[in-house]
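This section describes the prediction task in plain terms. A model, or a person checking by hand, is given the sequence of a single protein chain and must write out its three-dimensional structure as a string of tokens. No templates, partner chains or ligands are provided. The sample shown here is typical of the held-out split.
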Amino acid sequence: MAADAFVPIAARAAPRPRLGALAWVQKRLFPSWGSSLLTLALGALLVVIVPPLFDWAVLYAVPNADNAACRAAHGHGACWGVVAEKGRLILFGRYPYADQWRALLASGLLVVLLVASCLRACWRPALVAAWVIVLGACYVLMRGGWIGLEEVGTDRWGGLPLTLLLSTVSLVVAFPLAVAVALGRRSKLPAIRTLCTVYVELVRGVPLITVLFMASFILPLFMPGGSTIDVLVRVLVGMTLFTAAYLAEVVRGGLQAVPKGQIEAAQSLGLRYWQTQRKIVLPQALRTVVPAIVNTFIGAFKDTSLVTIVSLYDLTGAVQLALGDADWRKFFLEGQLFVAAIYFVACWAMSRYSRWLEGQLYTGTGRE
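The expected answer:
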């Protein structure tokens, strides 16, 4: 039988590039029938909610610190004048008014240090020295008593500077402690493994508010007569131990994700235990659990609001203190929204940094 004649197939048109706003909308909002229905439902909900919210927050709002105008607009317009009137008290708590520049400078130094620590170009040994210098400078600025600065007791620290100091110091100290505890839980020595396990299970078995209560009110009962520990130090110790217990479990999960063959290969090369952990195991383990670590950081940052039970007025405690004024008490919602916006910006920044860091660390593997 004669072979069939060859018939060439006509060339297909080149695919159109899916770029631009329309392609983004189709991919993100209308990729399927289910997603399209959900997008339309959420859009209808926004149409119902956004206009009255805009009227309350913007159109009929009172931006000036005019108590009479705020009372007249109460119920149909927001009173942002409460932020203008009580903003410094919310941000700095009971810190002396004339010295609030010191708290502002300390907060600025701490934020700059945190931003620098997030950049890979700054991951050098000098960064450790920078942390020591900046934390020391923040303490001197906040406490005073040196270089002509008036001394301010820690019981008068508050607002945003106290929130930043509590969260930053507790996390910086808790992270290496968590790594040590995670390694201890995987140790072959029964005493170390048992001690680390008991610590993690005991601390994770109680809420943070209980730890703060014990550190502030129960611990002084066991101190020798005439001796005392500053309440801020006790709170820092309690928050550090609590955060370290949760971080230790996160790090332990990362350690278990490292293939055993990696450790055996390191041992075959003659690397010792600490060399293996520092150069082989920990870099891979910590890279794996970056999202969980940042999630713990975000939780610890928000948990600083619990220190109000021991009479330390952080950001959330300061807003309650500021709105104790009878003239502005009814505008509590606007003050809380102002504080919520600060927390949201900080947590959103940490979340975005986590995404960026994952992209940097997984460049070679293509993981998303």
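For orientation: Residues 256 and 285 are 8 Å apart (CA to CA).
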